[in-house]
Amino acid sequence: MNVGLIIPADTPPTGGNSISARRVKEGLQSEGLHADTVLYQDHLPSFDVYHGWNANRVGVQLVRHGINPHRMVVTWTGTDLWQDWVADYRPIADALDDVACQVVFTDDARSRILDDKPGWADRIHVISPSVNEQVFAPAPAAIPLPHPLVLLAGGVRPVKRSAWAIDLVEATREATGIDIHMAVAGPVRHLGEWGIVKSKASGNPWVHLLGEVPKEEMPDWYNAVDVVINTSAVEGVSNALLEALSCGSLVLCSNIAGNRYLVENGANGLLFSDEGEFVHQLTEALKGGDSVKRMRLEARKRVLARHSLQLEIAAYRSLYDHCQFLVAEPKSCSR
């Protein structure tokens, strides 16, 4: 079987879809399957199965360019559901109506799609994403950094609310008088948001703009900072958060569906809904103590228990096999 893992054309190497597709590719290859990660284009190589990462920007386009829906697996990754589908689900639903193998990361995501398309119940599958727990593992800090330091990891774009994150840390500095430093790591995905981020960082030496950090260097950052933050408006499941949790980092993230899937407030991390809650949670987090130690340990423990690469690959292989069955039995349209 030859599987094409197709990601949006503008995805940088450290983008979430790129990381997810490469992870699945490596898992498939370890089991003897042939798989390629390909940026979406109108003229794609021939594959037995086309696995689109982003239902709207890849899945819909594959159908419109004549790919047999029975040869397709579509993974809903975040903005395709919580922004595009929520804004107007009908054109996406019409395009994907014959795609029998669709994947979401969480039960909440599945329920949201079925609110609008209850007839899709047999084709929306929940597959939990995984992380390489050997690479992303607790380790002594290896980078000399100013402390306390919080890290925002992820592409700079409006949905990540990167500029707002600087405002939140600044509000905490003002409320506490603590000289908190902030590092922003990730590729520029939106020039407008990047301009605002640069403007807010200008003249503030406590803001450090790292740019795109190679994935292999990220464990050192997760293990060296005091808190990893996520301020996203919507998420599928954040690879950056999953990596940080696997390293046993203390995470503070926006109280949205995708983040709640990973983080139980006060158990393995912290959630916030507004500026006041952020200031309170970060202030308490920086005090350290037994509660912080407990959350860090629980963060790693839950990743090991719930996010297995072997289970993720087995689930996708099952869907790929089903695609092969559908091609052989074209009258069947759902699992």
TrEMBL record:
The keyword Lipid biosynthesis appears for this protein: no
Record GO terms (molecular function): transferase activity
Keywords, in A-Z order: Transferase
Name assigned to this protein: Glycosyl transferase family 1
Species of origin: Sulfobacillus benefaciens
